[in-house]
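Figure caption, in words: inputs first, then the predicted bound structure.
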Amino acid sequence: MRRFGVSLPCELAEAVDRISQETGATRSEVIAAALWEYLETQKDHKKPGHQCLGVVVAVTDTFSDVGDAIEVNKTHVVAYTHVHVEGRCLTIAVVRGDGSKIERFALEVAKRARLARYIPLL
Ligand SMILES: [Zn+2]
Ligand SMILES: [Zn+2]
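Bound structure (zinc ion present):
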């Protein structure tokens, strides 16, 4: 076992606490389970040299939150669309390129978004 400090957005920390209370698992167990699942789904797609095709989905307050990241990474963004749902911006970007670069783009989007997912497809 190793201990280290991790900062989480309040909303995410509350979700971890809620799952912990509902299941009786400790916070560490909830986070470890989530992390294992994440690592399992992502491991092959993020290898440098792997040409990845996938979709980045993000919910933001304004388009510029994610639009800036798209502009900077436009060589990896094949196409994107942007719609409004419940007063928020929903952006769906089709991405293709080196797995590690796509990963960097997805993390950049996640930093600026209320909610973001990278769904690797191929
Ligand atoms: Zn891939
Ligand atoms: Zn918008």
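Residues 63, 82, 84, 89 surround zinc ion (ligand 2) (CB under 6 Å).
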